[in-house]
Amino acid sequence: MPRKKKVEEVAPATRATIADFDIIIEPLITEKSMTLSQESNKATFKVKKGSNKIAIKRAIEHIYGVKVTGVQTVNVSAKKASRGARYKGTLPGYKKAIVTLAEGQAIDLFKE
Protein backbone atom coordinates (compact mmCIF):
# COMPACT_ATOMS: atom_id res chain seq x y z
CA MET A 1 0.00 0.00 0.00
CA PRO A 2 1.61 3.34 -1.05
CA ARG A 3 2.04 6.03 1.55
CA LYS A 4 0.04 9.20 1.32
CA LYS A 5 2.01 12.33 0.72
CA LYS A 6 1.88 14.84 3.50
CA VAL A 7 -0.07 17.91 2.45
CA GLU A 8 1.86 21.09 3.11
CA GLU A 9 -0.08 23.78 4.85
CA VAL A 10 -0.28 26.97 2.89
CA ALA A 11 0.59 30.07 4.87
CA PRO A 12 -2.22 32.62 5.03
CA ALA A 13 -1.90 35.55 2.65
CA THR A 14 0.03 38.41 4.19
CA ARG A 15 -0.80 40.86 1.44
CA ALA A 16 -4.16 42.49 0.95
CA THR A 17 -6.54 40.82 -1.48
CA ILE A 18 -9.64 42.08 -3.25
CA ALA A 19 -11.77 40.39 -0.57
CA ASP A 20 -10.07 42.54 2.10
CA PHE A 21 -10.93 45.72 0.21
CA ASP A 22 -14.54 44.52 -0.18
CA ILE A 23 -14.92 44.28 3.61
CA ILE A 24 -13.46 47.69 4.53
CA ILE A 25 -15.47 50.45 2.84
CA GLU A 26 -13.80 53.57 4.26
CA PRO A 27 -12.31 54.99 7.45
CA LEU A 28 -14.69 57.12 9.53
CA ILE A 29 -13.12 60.44 10.40
CA THR A 30 -15.08 62.31 13.06
CA GLU A 31 -14.16 64.21 16.19
CA LYS A 32 -14.97 61.19 18.34
CA SER A 33 -12.94 58.78 16.19
CA MET A 34 -9.94 61.13 16.22
CA THR A 35 -10.14 61.33 20.03
CA LEU A 36 -10.27 57.51 20.20
CA SER A 37 -7.23 57.20 17.95
CA GLN A 38 -5.18 59.65 20.02
CA GLU A 39 -6.17 58.48 23.51
CA SER A 40 -6.95 54.77 23.15
CA ASN A 41 -5.02 53.70 20.02
CA LYS A 42 -8.25 52.78 18.17
CA ALA A 43 -9.31 53.31 14.56
CA THR A 44 -12.88 53.48 13.22
CA PHE A 45 -14.02 52.11 9.85
CA LYS A 46 -17.23 51.76 7.88
CA VAL A 47 -17.47 48.06 6.93
CA LYS A 48 -19.66 45.78 4.83
CA LYS A 49 -22.93 44.83 6.56
CA GLY A 50 -22.40 41.05 6.46
CA SER A 51 -18.80 41.04 7.70
CA ASN A 52 -17.79 39.51 11.02
CA LYS A 53 -15.09 40.47 13.52
CA ILE A 54 -12.58 37.86 12.34
CA ALA A 55 -12.84 38.99 8.71
CA ILE A 56 -12.56 42.66 9.74
CA LYS A 57 -9.45 41.94 11.82
CA ARG A 58 -7.79 40.02 9.00
CA ALA A 59 -8.61 42.74 6.44
CA ILE A 60 -7.21 45.57 8.61
CA GLU A 61 -4.03 43.59 9.31
CA HIS A 62 -3.51 42.87 5.60
CA ILE A 63 -4.35 46.34 4.27
CA TYR A 64 -2.55 48.49 6.85
CA GLY A 65 0.14 46.03 8.06
CA VAL A 66 -0.64 46.47 11.77
CA LYS A 67 -1.43 44.06 14.63
CA VAL A 68 -5.08 44.19 15.77
CA THR A 69 -5.89 43.17 19.35
CA GLY A 70 -9.66 43.72 19.36
CA VAL A 71 -12.66 44.56 17.17
CA GLN A 72 -16.00 46.01 18.25
CA THR A 73 -18.86 46.35 15.78
CA VAL A 74 -21.94 48.57 15.80
CA ASN A 75 -24.91 48.57 13.44
CA VAL A 76 -25.75 52.25 12.90
CA SER A 77 -29.43 52.62 12.08
CA ALA A 78 -30.87 54.69 9.23
CA LYS A 79 -31.89 58.26 10.02
CA LYS A 80 -34.67 60.48 8.64
CA ALA A 81 -33.44 63.54 6.78
CA SER A 82 -34.95 66.49 4.96
CA ARG A 83 -33.65 69.02 2.48
CA GLY A 84 -35.76 72.06 3.18
CA ALA A 85 -39.48 71.64 3.76
CA ARG A 86 -40.24 69.73 0.56
CA TYR A 87 -37.80 66.89 0.22
CA LYS A 88 -37.97 64.14 2.83
CA GLY A 89 -35.88 61.01 2.82
CA THR A 90 -33.59 58.78 4.82
CA LEU A 91 -29.84 58.44 5.27
CA PRO A 92 -28.90 54.78 4.94
CA GLY A 93 -27.67 52.74 7.88
CA TYR A 94 -24.25 51.09 7.94
CA LYS A 95 -22.01 48.89 10.03
CA LYS A 96 -19.14 50.47 11.95
CA ALA A 97 -16.05 48.71 13.32
CA ILE A 98 -13.88 50.13 16.11
CA VAL A 99 -10.50 48.41 15.88
CA THR A 100 -8.05 48.35 18.81
CA LEU A 101 -4.41 48.30 17.71
CA ALA A 102 -1.49 46.70 19.53
CA GLU A 103 0.81 48.84 21.66
CA GLY A 104 3.15 50.89 19.48
CA GLN A 105 1.09 50.36 16.28
CA ALA A 106 -0.63 53.19 14.41
CA ILE A 107 -2.60 53.79 11.22
CA ASP A 108 -1.89 57.04 9.38
CA LEU A 109 -5.16 57.98 7.67
CA PHE A 110 -3.83 61.30 6.35
CA LYS A 111 -0.93 60.15 4.16
CA GLU A 112 0.06 62.51 1.40
What does this structure look like?
It is a single chain. With 112 residues, this protein is an alpha+beta fold. The chain has one domain (18-101): RRM (RNA recognition motif) domain (Alpha-Beta Plaits, 2-Layer Sandwich). It is 25% helix and 33% strand. The protein has three helices and six strands; from the N terminus they run αβαβαββββ. A four-stranded antiparallel sheet has the order 1-2-6-3. The chain has a two-stranded antiparallel ribbon with strand order 4-5. A hairpin with a 3-residue loop joins strand 4 (79-83) and strand 5. The longest helix is centred in the middle third of the chain and has 12 residues, at 53-64. The protein starts with 17 loop residues before the first helix and ends in an 11-residue tail after the last strand.
